[in-house]
C-alpha cells in the first residue's frame, strides 16, 4: 500500500478485508450505509440512534451486526483522519482506493465528504480547546437613589453578570461599571470586532 | 451615617483653642474622611495640638465628623443652609470659618462618599488581544481568530480597607460570542440614550 493521506501510521490488517466486503454491497446498499455514517459524523452525540440505524441496516440487508460494526470502524478511520488533516475530496477518494475500495464507491463517498465537510470542520473547530469560555452575559442598569452617606445620589450604575465556563463548571462573575467605563468598554469591544473580522 | 446630636455644637467650640485656621481645616478634612471606628485614634493624635483632655478631643472629633457627614448627606450647598444648622449662641467667627471650610470641601467630600459607596465588585481595567488559532489536537490546520479579554475586577473597597483585592479574569470569546455581546451592549447603549433624552 502506498502512502496514505489520512494517516501516517500503518493501517490495521483487517481494513483490507473490510474494504473487500464493502465492495460486495450494491450501490444502493452502500449509499444507505454512507448516509447512516455521515448522519453520525455530523451529530456525534447521537450514539444510540447510530447503533439503532446500523442494526436496522444489518437486519434489512441480512448482514451480521458484528462484522458490519468492524467494517464501519474501518471506514470511519478515513473521515476522522481526513478531518484532522483538512483533506480534499480527491485525497479521500485516493485513500479509499489505496485501501482497496472500488473506484465507484470511493468516488461516491468522496462526493458525500465534500458535501458534509463544512459542517464537519465547524464541529472539529468547535471542539478546540477554549480557555474560560464566556457562555452568557446578563445585565441590568439603574439609578442609585440614595445611600447611607448621601441622601440623594442620582447616579447611573451598570451591572454585568458574566457566566464563564472554567473547566467543566460554570462560574458567575459580577461586575459593576460606571457610565464612562461602559462607553469605553463598548468602544474597545467594537475594536476587537473589527480586528477579528479582518482576520476571518 | 451619623446624625447631629445636641452635645455636638458645644463640643465644636473646643476648636476655639486651635492654633490656626489651617489646623481647623486639616482637622475637618481628617474627621470627614475617617470612618467612625478610626475616630478614637484620630482624637488621640489631635489632643496635643489642641491642649485639651482626651475626652474633650474625642467629643470634638466625633462632633466634627457628624457635622461634616451630615452636610454631605443632606447635600447642602449654600452657605445659608449650613449657617442655619448652628444654634443661636454659637461663636460667630467660628461658625463662619467652619461654614467656609465646609463649602470649600463639599464637592470633594461628595465624590469621596460616592467612591466609597458599597457596590458589586468594580471593573478597574480591561485589556484584550486577538489570537489566530492555527492548529489543535482535533484539527491540524486552521485559521480561527479568537479574542482574549482580561478584566481587572476590584472587590468592594469598603470591605478591603486600604488593601483592595484586585482579581484578573481572562475570558475567551469567539467571533460569534463577541457579536452577541456587542448586540447586548448596543441595546444597553440605546436604552441609556432613551433615558438620557427623557
From TrEMBL, chain A:
Stretches assigned to the COMM domain:
133-200
Q: Which Pfam families match?
A: COMM_domain (PF07258), COMM_HN (PF21672)
GO BP annotations listed: negative regulation of DNA-templated transcription; tumor necrosis factor-mediated signaling pathway
**What domain of life does the UniProt record list for this protein's source?**
Eukaryota
GO terms (molecular function) for this protein are: NF-kappaB binding
Q: Know the name of this protein?
A: COMD7 protein
UniProtKB/TrEMBL annotation, chain B:
Q: Which residues form a coiled coil?
A: none
Name the Pfam families for this protein.
Answer: COMM_domain, COMMD9_HN
Show the CDD domains listed in the entry: Commd9
User: Which PROSITE patterns does the record match to this protein?
Assistant: COMM
Q: InterPro entries attached here?
A: COMM, COMMD9, COMMD9_N
Which residues belong to any copy of the COMM domain? 122-196
- The entry's protein name is COMD9 protein
Q: Which organism is it from?
A: Emberiza fucata
Amino acid at each position: 500500500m502506498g502512502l496514505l493521506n489520512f494517516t501516517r501510521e500503518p493501517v490495521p490488517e483487517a481494513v483490507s478485508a473490510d474494504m473487500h466486503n464493502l465492495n460486495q454491497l450494491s450501490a444502493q446498499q452502500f449509499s444507505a450505509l454512507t448516509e447512516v455514517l455521515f448522519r453520525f459524523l455530523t451529530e456525534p452525540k447521537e450514539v444510540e440512534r447510530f447503533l439503532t440505524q446500523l442494526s436496522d441496516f444489518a437486519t434489512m440487508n441480512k448482514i451480521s451486526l458484528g462484522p458490519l460494526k468492524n467494517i464501519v470502524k474501518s471506514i470511519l478511520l478515513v473521515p476522522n483522519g481526513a478531518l484532522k488533516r483538512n483533506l480534499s475530496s480527491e485525497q479521500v477518494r485516493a485513500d479509499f482506493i489505496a485501501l482497496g475500495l472500488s473506484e465507484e464507491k470511493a468516488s461516491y463517498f468522496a462526493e458525500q465528504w465534500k458535501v458534509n465537510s463544512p459542517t464537519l470542520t465547524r464541529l472539529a473547530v468547535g471542539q478546540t480547546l477554549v480557555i474560560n469560555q464566556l457562555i452568557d452575559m446578563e445585565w441590568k442598569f439603574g439609578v442609585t437613589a440614595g445611600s447611607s452617606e448621601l441622601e440623594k445620589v442620582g447616579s447611573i450604575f451598570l451591572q454585568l453578570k458574566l457566566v464563564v465556563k472554567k473547566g467543566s463548571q460554570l462560574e458567575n462573575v459580577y461586575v459593576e461599571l460606571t457610565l464612562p467605563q461602559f462607553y469605553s468598554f463598548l468602544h474597545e469591544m467594537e475594536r476587537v470586532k473589527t480586528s477579528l473580522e479582518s482576520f476571518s | 451615617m451619623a446624625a447631629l446630636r445636641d452635645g455636638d455644637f458645644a463640643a465644636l467650640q473646643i476648636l476655639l483653642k486651635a492654633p490656626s485656621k489651617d489646623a481647623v481645616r486639616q482637622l475637618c478634612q481628617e474627621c470627614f474622611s475617617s470612618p467612625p471606628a478610626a475616630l478614637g485614634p484620630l482624637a488621640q493624635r489631635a489632643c496635643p495640638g489642641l491642649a485639651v483632655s482626651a475626652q474633650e478631643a474625642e467629643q470634638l472629633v466625633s462632633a466634627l465628623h457628624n457635622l461634616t457627614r451630615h452636610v454631605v448627606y443632606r447635600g447642602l450647598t449654600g452657605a445659608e443652609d449650613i449657617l442655619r444648622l448652628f444654634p443661636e449662641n454659637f461663636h460667630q467667627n467660628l461658625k463662619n470659618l467652619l461654614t467656609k471650610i465646609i463649602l470649600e470641601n463639599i464637592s470633594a467630600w461628595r465624590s469621596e462618599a460616592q467612591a466609597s459607596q458599597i457596590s458589586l465588585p468594580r471593573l478597574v481595567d480591561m485589556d484584550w488581544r486577538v489570537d489566530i488559532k492555527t492548529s489543535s489536537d482535533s484539527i491540524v490546520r486552521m485559521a480561527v481568530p479568537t479574542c482574549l479579554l482580561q478584566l481587572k475586577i476590584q472587590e468592594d473597597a469598603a470591605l478591603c480597607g486600604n488593601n483592595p483585592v484586585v482579581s484578573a479574569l481572562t475570558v475567551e470569546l469567539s467571533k460569534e460570542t463577541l457579536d452577541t455581546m456587542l448586540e447586548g451592549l448596543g441595546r444597553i447603549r440605546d436604552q441609556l440614550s432613551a433615558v438620557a433624552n427623557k
